[in-house]
Structure formats: structure tokens, C-alpha cells
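Each record in this resource describes a single protein on a pair of labelled lines. With that in mind, the following record should read easily:

===
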Amino acid sequence: MFKFVVFLVTFLALTSQALSAVKWNNPGSGGDKRPVQLLKKLVTKEITASELSDEDLCLSLKFLDLPSTFYEHQKRGLDCLAIKNSQKGWVMPSRDEAFKYLKQYKRIYKIALPSFSFDNSRPSFGNLKKTASTYQKLNQNFNDEFSEKNQISNRMQFCLDWFGSVKYVAENQSKNLDGSFGWKDDTLRDGFVICQGEFNQIYLRALNDKDILDQLEQMLLSWINNDGLRRDVETDNDIFGQILLFNKASIAIEMHHSSFGWSKEQNKKLSKWLNDRVVEMFPTDKRPISKICPTNTKSSEFKTIEACQNGGILRAQALLRVAIWNKDPELVEMAYLTFHRYMTGIREDGSNIADSTRGCAAADYNIWASQFMSDFLFHWDRIANPLWDTQFVNGSTPSDAVEYSLSLFGNFESINKHTLNKRWKNCDVYKAEKKQQASRRYEEETYYPRVSFSPYFQYRGYLINELKNYDRLSESTYTAQSGANYEVALIHLNPKLEEALNKYIAKKEEQKKQAIAKIKEQEKQARKLETAKNQARIKEQAKKIQQKKELLKTQIRQLENDILDKFHFQSGTQFSLASSIYQVPNSTLFVIDEKEAPQIRKVNSAEERKKIHASFTVGLMNEEKISSTRLIPKTISNFGSLISLMEYDGDEINQTTSIGVATGHLKDLAGGLAEINELASKNCGSLPGKLSKRGAYEWVFIITKTKDKQIVKQQDCVLDVFLSQQNQVSEFYKGLLMISTNLENYLNAVQ
């Protein structure tokens, strides 16, 4: 795959214990002179970047760009990132050199180019604000998924840091190094594989995140100004990776260009960069591509040709994008010829002759190819009459290809009749049962959204039905395959479609409002009925409550006496326990972990009834044994002070009580308990003064008993603030909420 000089070294004397001192012999032969042993160990995580010497670290970065080795080389202050340098021997081909076989193909088969016009071609997407609102309109969770609300992942940060410096796309750096046909779940991917998906996330997030938008712009400008993202001239194989990544870069430009405000000179550079990248993609294959695609898969001489599978239609897509952008008629012609030749490799049933042979990956690749073709025809429909029902060499049409791929959804193994046995060789767990990996992706990841074929559905006139059942509901469904979410573009380009969608959304919103109103009315009537029923029971309930309180006090006193009877005391000595259990019958257990008993003291205030100093965890009693001792987080076991406050409204039954925890004993709690408590107070208001400490946020209070609706509302608001943190502060609050009533009972019971 790669043509590099052999790097031969030996073990350094007396340093065999240190992996960083190991020199790597090259097992490769012929044109592959990579330090394969080193690369395999990195990909399979047998070694880490930090364990390598500077020399070995730089050696690995000549052939394999991993996030770990990239950041390690930066950390050490090294400058050996090979991918940022131009390859030697790279020469930009002329158009005559690039397209000579396509022109031969046109002459041999006498292919007529359909008429087209740039006159009415509008930008694919609208302005940034309109595009963002359309995404949100289709999926109300879009902004939550792609905005600054979500922390930038390590993978995305890596792409932001590394991808813009890439001068050329090194193909398949990590593929097959772990022994699989692609990548195992627990092995590392190279930067190009990582950024295939993460780059899509970047330009989608840029719709709502100005900082990411700025970084995306700089990444694109870096490629444009430095002639980056070139093809890999040191591979004899296909350049699928470069073509895929270029198409994704083109989608980002389509979507965001209007917001960049580039000068005429910058746009001139952009046009040249776009032209150069697509011209260097040709000729498609090493062998001449002037004949139709081979179709006899049973022949011993059958070989897959890149021009006839997903990589071929990706090239056609790239050509057409650039052709429309630069208003270049010759590129339109070359794009059509590339598409035409690709279509000669489609069977009558709509399957792709080459991609359908690919063992356990056949369904995956076939769907990809059809989706790439759908993207191509989206752009074709912008400048010419649709080709969806045009018959090609085998009598098949683009519509047939899409329908075949759609038929695979949930029925992926039906493609096995087209697969070749030899292409199941490296399929690992899928091989024995002849199972398609697409089946797992479909079941576990919802990986194949139907709406990715939106140009086809629009042509058929029922895209609105697909939008009503919109199935891009997760990050992967937006970024999988090409990452071109052209349903958004089609809404922009078709006012009638947008109007129909708006009417549907408005109708659904009205139905939702009516349903909510109905539920609220039902709840209101139910509350009235329940109130009427409860009126007669209030006095009886109050009596029972008082009886339960008295019984509880008695039980707790007896329990404490039983515990204390087991220990002897001398004058002046401190009470000591290794582990004591204070049990509230039929409830949660308090397990005292520290070596002193809970200290409870009365307070001379009418509202502050008692204070307690203790550390504890919580467990459940099952057949006189503690079955669980960690129902709530460790953070709950580290506070030092509790306080119980209360107020009356004239009736003991209606008393409101609270229990508070001092935050000063929880300074190490990650997330800042006091800060979040202050935020909750600002957002939700404070409790009445009798139920809270005045003028500070150093106490967290939870209401254990109340009938005051305003207080209930305030407590619900506070709960939402704490739970929104999704960290130790959130866990602490949940734990305190869980045990607050039992703490109140304990304080009430102990005199």
C-alpha cells in the first residue's frame, strides 16, 4: 500500500526493559515498507504513545496518524507530523490526462450528453439561520444534539486540532491492521477514519455554535490556501478516502459559504482548489476505464473496479458539485459520463454488481452507493431534467437502484445471493452465519435513515410523507454515509414542500395543545373529586399519623437503648462504635461509618429544633441483614451538620418542615455544591425564612412536609436545577432527597 524506505534497526544494549528504546524491524516486503509491528501494536493498544521513544513516535507518524501519537508529539515539542508536508512527486494532471478515458468511453458508446443549464441553479442551502431553523423544525432535539450545549468530544477536538493541517489524504492507514476486514470495535482508527464522521458533526454543530463555525472556516481556508486535502500519490489502490472527505468538505462549503463573507480573491482560490481536487481524482482506475463495467461475477477473471462501485459514483458527485459551483460545462459532461459508466454496473434488480459481492459488508456498501447516487441526482436535478427513470445498459434505472437498497432494510441477508465466497474471508463473527454487518447496525444504531434518499422521494412526490415520519433521530443518522442531509436543501429549494411541512407541523402542534388541555382538564376534575373524598378522612388520618409518630419514637428509643447496652462507658471516655446501625422500622437504614455516635443537640430557637453531626451511608434490611449499603453516592456520607427547621400555619397537621445540610463540610464535592445551590435560589426563589438559613447559600434545604403549593413549586424547580448538572452534585441532591424524610423522622424521634 505504501512505498517508503525500509527502516531497519536493532535492539539497544541493556535497555530491553524499556519499550521506548525498542527499535522496530520492518516485516513488510515489496512496496510496503511500513513498520508493521509498531503500527499493529499501537492500533491494538498493546503499547501506548507515551511508551515510545521520540524516534519511534516520529516513525509511526510517517505512516499512521492517531490522536494519541499526535498529541504526544505535540506534548514533547516535536515537529515530525508527516501528513502536513507535500508528497514528493505530486504533479497536478491536465484535464486531457485526467479525462482521456472518459472521453474514449463517450466515443466508443456514442453517449449523448443530456441538455442542462446553470441559469436557474440556486444554492443548495439557504442562509445559515434558515438552515438551522429547518433542521430544528424537522427534529426538535437537533439543537440539543449539535450545539454548544454538548461538550466537545475528544474525537471532535482532535479533528479541529489536526485535520486542517492535512496536506494529503493517506488511504487506509489503520484498516486491516487488527486482522479484520475493517476495524474491530476495541481497536484504534486513524485520523482520517475518525474525521469522516466528526467532520460532519463539526459543520452541523457550526449551525448553532459560532466558535465551531470560526474553526471550520479556518480549516477550509487552510486547505484552500495551502493546496491541502490532495490525493495520496503513493498508493496504487483506490483513493476512496480522499474522495469521500472532499465531498464532505464540499457539503460544508455549500452549507456555510454564505456566512463566511470571503473576498473575491478568496473565492477565486476556492474555485481553483475545487477544480484541482476533482481533476486529480481521474483516471478512476489504474487500468483504462473506457469500457462498461464488468458484469460476470462468476468469471474467474472478474475483478471489482472502483469506477463501478461506490467510489465511482462519489467521483461523479464531486465533479457535478464543482461543475455547478464553477459553472463549468466540461465538468458537467465528465460528471455525467462517470455516472453513466457507474450505472452500467447496476443489475436489473437494482443491486450494484461490484458492491453486492463484498461479503458481510455487501449490504452496507450497496446502500452507501445508492445514497451517493441519490446525492448526485439531487445536484443533477438542479440543472437538468431528472434521470431517475432513465434506462441504462442493463435496463436498470436509478430508481431501481434506490428501491433495491430500500428493500434491504431489515432484510439485509437477501443480498447474500450476490456475494462472493472469497470476500467473506475476513468477516470474523459474521462469517459463520453469513450475517451482514448492516443487520447489527440497523438494529443497534438505526444507522440507515430512509430520508437520506430524499431526492428520490421528492421526485416521486412523496417526500412530505417521509418528513412526517422523519427518521434522523440520532447523531449517527445525520453523519452516516455521505453526511449530506439534502432533505433540508430540498425544503429550501421547494416552497410548496416547505408550505406543506409547515402546515403539518402546525397541525401537530395544535393537536398536541388540545391533548395537553384535555389532560389538564381531566386532572383538574380528578383533583376536585379526590379533594371531596379526602375531606371526610382528614381528621382520621391526622389521628393515625400522630399514633404512628408516637410508635416510631418508642421504636427508635428502644433500638438505641439496645445498641448502647452493648457498650461500657467510663467517666471522661468518648463513645466509640466500629459500625452502628440506626434503623427506622419499615424504612431506610442509616449506617454510621465514623467512630463516634451521631451527636444531636437541641437549639434554643423555636424553628431550629435539633442539630446532628454524623456521617452515614444508606442500606436496606433484608431478613435482618443489610443487602445493600450504597443506595446513594459516597458524597452523602461526608457532611458534618444537619439542621431541622419548621413553621406552623396554626394547625399541626399543616406544619411545614425542612431539613438542611451544611455545604461547608462538602467543599471537595465536584461541581460546586454551593454554587449550584446559589443558582437554584436565583432561578427558583428562596424558601420562607423560618425554613432556611438567612442570607447565605451554605445550606441545602429540602422540604420534608408541606401543603403549601408555592413551596412545592419552588422545590420542583430546585430539583430541576440540581438534576440538570448530571454530576456528583446531582447525585448528592438525589441521595439527600431519598433520605430526607427518614432523617426528619430520626430527629423527631430522638429527644
About this structure: The first strand starts at residue 580 and ends at 583. The chain has three domains: 19-80, 95-178+186-493, 552-749.
